[in-house]
Amino acid sequence: MIISLSMLAEAWSAMGANRLRTFLTMLGMMIGVAAVVAMMAIGQGAQLAVNASIASMGSNLFVILSGASTSGGLRVGSGSAPTLTLLDAQAIAELPSINAVAPAQPGTAQVVYGSNNWSTQIYGTTPDYLTVRSWPLESGSPFTETDLRSANRVALIGATVAKNLFLDEDPVGKTLRIRNSPYVVVGLLAVKGQSLDGRDQDDTILIPVTTALQKLFGSQFQGSVRFMMAQAVSPEKMERAERDMTDLLRARHRIAEGADSDFTIRNLAALASAAAATTKVMSLMLGAIASVSLLVGGIGIMNIMLVSVTERTREIGIRMAIGARRRDILLQFLLEAIIISVIGCCIGVGLGVAGALGAMEFTGTKVSITSQSIILAFAVATAVGVFFGFYPARKAAWLKPIDALRYQ
Amino acid sequence: MSDAVIRIEHLHKSYETEAGVFPVLKDVNLTIGRGEFVAIMGPSGSGKSTFMNIVGCLDHPTEGRYFLDGNDTGHMDSDELAALRNRTIGFVFQGFNLLPRARLTENVALPLVYAGVSRAERQQRAIEMLKRVGLGDYLRSFPNQISGGQQQRVAIARALANRPSLLLADEPTGNLDSQTSREIMELFAILNRNQRITIVLVTHEQDIAAYAGRLVRFLDGRVAHDGAMTAAPESVPA
């Protein structure tokens, strides 16, 4: 079947004969497509935001918490008993399934620079922390092995800290005070943004773990840290790495067969994929709900095409009498349905994109408009046109010439 | 007989209704040769319209055979019948049956669209046909902008556009005044005389039928009279 220019012109003029009705039919299509495009943009935007948060956490990540302490029957929660040591971290780093390990000792302190002061989260850790968290430096350099060994007072600061203490100044090389001790800022961390639970990850200072333990926070158990972060060499090695670390730590801590571990290993990748799966389901739901309006739009097209076929029965009869074959009539009506749905789709895509951008403008929701979602909308609209246009077109084409011609 | 445009043998047509089978045409036999101008008359319900529909390949006979230009139409599928209507037959209806949204040239060119003729040639032939029926000044008009007689001329131009060998006219003057009717009939007579187009025309009116060379009279589904126009008994009531 060849679709000629004159057939398109024919369909166009038939649609023009009843402009309001054509427009209303298109409107159903427009709203459907606009809803799908906007909802997909918002859903994909949410997915991107979640994925970005997950990526900002670091990939293939484990958190190893020191075990719960039991003192006089009172359990105080993970991280309160000093079971993980810096030597444990070194041993884990030797495992072939582990890429890097960073011990971390957190604490909160008031930080002062000039006349500005700021309270922030301080982590005593090693340069491996930057590897594990996939966290590059904006400027400066990480602290060194020497800094670690001699427990030097050096610091890497996050963007939020820099903004609050140094305003517009370049912080690298400056000296700030943490609990009245001077620390040289050796590097500025790149901006990471919010974590999955909404914390500002840039509101932080990293210092050598030795400095933290010996000079800043002090500890009754020298050499032990609250937690460690470990990175497996690949996503496939996650399970292996978890097993290796458990075996290693249990052996090092001399835990008897069958007894509880004095540490907890959490697989953050599993948490992340659960979060990603949730958003994906959400965005699919949005798309599915929007698709219902597309379906309703399609039914609208079928409805109007059926009316149109009935109204134009006589015209169909005339065309058949002067030589139109069934497929000519079929194609004529099918073409009209497709044109209506494709034009409706074009306008709908415009409305959907405008709606998504408007949502971003007024609510701050992240949206993502991809060419795939637009191509998909077009494909679906054409399919809807063909699907819902086919029955009325077939009804027209299968009329008997004499019945159509006699129709009043 | 070898050059028969229409050859009908033992044609029966009956409709099935709730009240039972209702016969409309009973054993009709008729042959119409090339270049003939035949008027078909008969009272309402005599079967002449049904006969015309079958001759026009718009309807199927219940029984019997119909050869158009020597081809047996009984074995044709809907596409072949459409092609036959397109190339061999031209229709002129009582109600003109023009497409209201199409310009006169587009109306006349419509059979050529279905014949697969190129756009340029369609346009050129439509103009030529409209000029031949005396409407060269109305090429860009729409059907509702011209008179009934002019509309029927457009319909004739459309019927002739694909150069058919047979023109079927079902009461072509039924909606026209007597002056216009005469003009239309003269156009038919000229087409028949000058271009040897076979014309079969249904009418109620004796003076319209008088333009034809042969008269076939239907009565109760049968051919009651068939003969040259001069032999037509004037006294038989229409």
Describe the structure.
The complex is a heterodimer of chains A (408) and B (238). With 408 residues, chain A is of the alpha+beta class. Chain A has two domains: 5-53 and 276-406, no CATH class; 82-261, no CATH class. Helices cover 55% and strands 19% of the residues of chain A. Chain A has helices at residues 5-16, 19-57, 86-93, 128-132, 145-149, 159-166, 209-216, 238-252, 268-311, 313-321, 326-363, 371-397, 401-406, and strands at 61-66, 70-71, 74-75, 84-85, 98-113, 116-125, 137-140, 154-157, 175-178, 181-189, 204-208, 224-225, 227-232, 263-267. Chain B is 33% helix and 29% strand. Chain B has seven helices and ten strands. At the A-B interface, α1, α10, α11 and α13 of A face α2 and α3 of B.
First-residue to last-residue Cα separation of chain B? 29 Å
Strand order of the largest sheet of chain A: 5-6-11-8-10-9
Helix content of chain B: 25-40%
The SSE string of chain B, one letter per element, is EEEHEEHEHHHEHEHEE
How many strand elements of chain A? Answer: 14
Distance between the termini of chain A: 31 Å
Major beta sheet summary of chain B: 6 strands, mixed
| Number of discrete helical segments of chain A | 13
Task: Quickly describe the structure.
The complex is a heterodimer of chains A (408) and B (238). Chain A has 408 residues and is α+β, with helices and mostly antiparallel strands.
Name its key features.
heterodimer, A: 408 residues, alpha+beta, 2 domains, six-stranded mixed barrel, two-stranded antiparallel sheet, 13 helices, elongated, B: 238 residues, alpha/beta, Rossmann fold, four-stranded antiparallel beta sheet, 7 helices, 10 strands, 29% strand, globular
